[in-house]
User: Fold this.
Amino acid sequence: MSPGTRHPRIGYTRLSMTSYYEDREANHFKTATSVSYLVDLLSRGGLSNTEHLRLLDLCSGTGCIPLLFHHDFYSRPSNGHISLDLVGIDISNHALALARQNQSAQLSGFAAGKAEEFSRSLERMSFIQADVLRTSHTTSDTIPTVSDALNLTATHPPKFDILISNPPYISSHDYTRTTSRSVRDFEPKLALVPPHSSTSFTHDGDLFYPRLLDIAKRVDAKVVLFEVADLAQAERVVASAVQQGQWAGVEIWRDQPGDSSACNETLSVVNENIKIRGSGNGRSILRYRGEGEAWLGI
Assistant:
């Protein structure tokens, strides 16, 4: 699969027995398997003494990631005692409107008969507008920074246990040369390709990742999961995470991270042996530290 490969989404997407509304202006979602596998790891007993978790989803689009995480999380009886707060952030008001529509649909379709905390958590879930790449705010800016947007929430300064993101990661070269017409016709370039930066020295498709790592540090995230285009991009992002020096462990997950038949793999990055899980293409980067290591049982 080439770095420019993404699948078009029209109408709605069905994930983990849950349907989500989308349209031609909605961001692409390809992290369902990784998110479900993350929930699986968290649900194996590492959270038995945890009463409250907070999750932040950056570049949230139509809200598929927090809604899927919520659905899968409370599908595990062992998590019923945990109060889960979820916040999704995106730059597009149109995508956020669809996210709230999906939230309402999930409330009406799944909340009835569910445990009380399931419904309360779903009702508390919030979707807010912010610019992930912006680092400072001026009076002329109409879209706030992530920090400014989060400062409007109840926690000051804002802290989150888990941070997930499926950012734009296709380089302008790959968008032109290898991205299929179906994707270019039905998804906005904003959701696929990072904006051009004349000051950044990172790879064209990697622009979001240093900023995401910085936000993870600022919100004190213990578990971080990012989607990437392929193994080459995964290696670059892992190198940045290792050099940041904030993490107890870093892993690369392939498309099917839970595939137990896959061979054990490691990759040497900046003199660190990085574990690669599963089968398929390089798809996600996992980082963890502190309590996160115990939560994941790694």
Residues 12-296 form a domain with the Rossmann fold fold (CATH 3.40.50.150).
